[in-house]
Amino acid sequence: MCVFCSIIKGDIPSKKVYEDENVLAILDISQATKGHTLVIPKKHFANILEIEYPEYENVMYAVKKVTEKINVVYKPAGFNILNNCNEAAGQTVMHFHVHVIPRYDNNDVKIEFTDHSKEYDLNQIAEDLK
Ligand code: AMP
Ligand code: ZN
To answer: Rounded to an integer, what is the distance from CA 45 to the centroid of its chain?
Structure first.
């Protein structure tokens, strides 16, 4: 059984910050910043490609609730709302979850995007993905 299923079952302890019928939110054990929370569907789905729409909508509802709560309590300067899909993208627990990471300053978490747009035909990509 995966680690998040064990947490949901109550076999592994966790710090719960939100719970409803379908969703559990717990403090990430590694706390990238103060209040870093994982929002997890109670039903096991490997990733965003596998999760069904009603469950996904339930998770995203809880993501907003958790974000609003952290915002009121800790008053961060901002948030990163993040999902890693598959090992190639840094997913380590193969049970869909969304990270809510409060940001207190520009340098407390490093998320970098490099501009590669010159290498691609944006018109073609827009056409492909329409
Ligand atoms: P990801 O790399 O997106 O799959 O994120 C998995 C996250 O789960 C990591 O940030 C871990 O710190 C966190 N994590 C792993 N085990 C536990 C646990 N038992 N309780 C809380 N968070 C955990
Ligand atoms: Zn699971």
So the answer is: 14
> Each residue of 35-61: pLDDT tens digit?
999 999 999 999 999 999 999 999 999
Q: Which of 36, 95, 97, 99 is catalytic?
A: 97
Q: Helix %, strand %, coil % for the chain, to 5? A: 35, 20, 50
pTM for this predicted structure: 0.97
How many residues does the structure list for the chain? 130
Pairing between strand 37-41 and 78-82?
Answer: unpaired
36 assigned to active site: no
* Contact residues of ligand 1, CB 6 A cut-off: 3, 12, 14, 26, 28-30, 38, 84, 90-93
All structural domains of the chain, each given as residue ranges with its CATH number in brackets, are: 3-129 (3.30.428.10)
